[in-house]
Design a protein that fits this description.
42% of the residues lie in helices and 9% in strands. Helix 14 runs parallel beside helix 15 (356-372). The protein is of the alpha/beta class and 464 residues long.
Length: 464
């Protein structure tokens, strides 16, 4: 019993002089820590009634771990510091909001670099939204973006030459790369001439035109160097010679009232749109115009023509979808004759030139028109889509037999590199080319000019 008592006294003496575990962890004295909450009494014992430390060091060591690891709501935040900060005099920073949300309770007003914090009596739900969300300083400092002087100016009006050269850019680029590239640091020998002829044929200029251009370039220059610019000049000159005879304006004979224009072509060539553009040009010339919606196969074509009629101020004669196109053409002739119309434009359904049944229907329309007026139609315009390339040759041949084509309108030159097909058509058929189109606007359909087209297809920059 004596030895046991001595050991207990020694342990009690060490417990009084040696700091507890919590004090060693935070570098503070044990007596400065707040009193822990009353612990559940151990089996066979009573809870301590005095706030003094435990009587034995063993009890102190047993209580310390529960203080550190227990997640009690009353445990101060400073007790959760990591072990590596042991001994540091940590102070809570109350002016910084925890990441991910605002404080859940009122905080004192503190002056910071960003301005004063909200008043302590303002609840979180009453806090105003951050200023950065209401208005951006950058946007407020740049009011000039809302009204630029340039936006107030009307878009510059492009001339026909500019629209033509831009529309023919694909054709001229393809032709220039394939043709003028042959003469870069090369002499004009037999192999070069053969490559030149092949490139011209591939550009849809046609064999006769390609041979004539090749001969013109080789004349007096054989076995000599030639610049790409000189090749372009010769190319434009020869193309203009081919196109000059067919560059003829569409003349309206005012003695023939109405002057009947029949529009024919395959599906998607742009007949209805071309009718609308031509009718506006005629109206600008002071002519009285009437439109006939002869494409009775497509309801959209009928509505489209009505829209054009309202736009240009021209009456439109239309029937329900599926009506007889020949009968509609006859009715339109009678009405145009009665009201003194100057120009009657008759739309027709698109049809493939190799479909005999559809071509027979077109031939019927022509016969009915001639029954009313033997000289009508006074003009049969074939609308050609430039993107079809060599297929246009077959279209001209067959539509000319059925509808007696008197002139050509080439559209969509801005959407293809095959614009050279117009040169081949002129060389083979010699039909007048009245208009060419390089866009969707009314101003993008203009009378055909051989010189401008030749320079545009050769890639020669000009201002005329």
């Amino acid at each position: 019993m004596k030895s046991s008592t001595s050991v207990d006294e020694a342990k009690h003496s060490m417990a009084e002089n040696k700091p507890g575990f919590f004090s060693r962890l935070f570098g503070r004295k044990a007596e400065t820590q707040p009193e822990p909450e009353p612990q559940t009494p151990q089996a066979g014992g009573e809870p301590e009634a005095m706030p003094s430390p435990p009587a034995t060091g063993a009890d102190d060591l047993a209580a310390a771990p529960s203080t550190v690891t227990a997640a009690s709501p009353d445990t101060p935040d400073e007790r959760k510091a990591p072990a590596e900060l042991a001994g540091a005099d940590l102070q809570p920073v109350e002016t910084i909001d925890p990441e991910g949300g605002s404080p859940k309770g009122p905080i004192p007003q503190v002056e910071t670099a960003m301005g004063p914090e909200p008043r302590p009596d303002v609840a979180e739900t009453e806090k105003p939204a951050p200023a950065a969300l209401d208005s951006q300083p950058v946007l407020e400092s740049e009011p000039a973006l809302e009204a630029q002087p340039v936006s107030e100016k009307p878009a510059p009006v492009r001339g026909w030459w500019q629209r033509l050269t831009e529309g023919m850019r694909r054709t001229s680029s393809s032709l220039s790369e394939n043709v003028t590239g042959l003469f870069t640091k090369r002499k004009l020998d037999e192999a070069t001439l053969q490559d030149l002829e092949d490139a011209l044929i591939q550009a849809d200029l046609g064999v006769p035109t390609a041979m004539r251009i090749t001969e013109a370039i080789s004349a007096g220059r054989y076995n000599k160097e030639i610049s790409p610019q000189e090749v372009r000049t010769i190319l434009a000159s020869e193309v203009e010679k081919t196109l000059q005879p067919v560059a003829q304006a569409l003349t309206i004979d005012r003695a023939k009232k109405p002057f009947v224009i029949l529009m024919v072509g395959v599906n998607g060539a742009g007949k209805t749109t071309t009718i609308g553009k031509l009718s506006q040009k005629f109206r600008q010339q002071g002519l009285k115009v009437m439109l006939a919606a002869g494409d009775t196969f497509r309801a959209a074509a009928i509505e489209q023509l009505k829209v054009w009629g309202e736009r240009v101020g021209a009456p439109v004669l239309a029937r329900e979808q599926g009506a007889d196109a020949a009968g509609l053409a006859f009715d339109a002739l009678q009405e145009a004759k009665a009201n003194g119309t100057d120009v009657l434009l008759i739309d027709t359904a698109g049809r493939l030139q190799n479909k005999a049944g559809l071509m027979a229907e077109l031939e019927k329309i022509v016969r009915v028109i001639k029954k009313f007026d033997e000289s009508a139609p006074h003009a049969s315009l074939l609308v050609l889509d430039a993107t079809v390339g060599q297929n246009a040759m077959s279209q001209v041949e067959l539509f000319q037999k059925v509808a007696g084509v008197t002139g050509l309108v080439m559209t969509k030159l801005d959407g293809t590199a095959r614009g050279g097909i117009l040169v081949a058509l002129a060389a083979k058929f010699g039909l007048p080319v009245h208009f060419i189109g390089v866009g969707e606007g009314v101003e993008d359909l203009e009378p055909f000019t051989a010189g401008d087209f030749a320079k545009a297809i050769a890639g020669i920059e000009a201002t005329s």
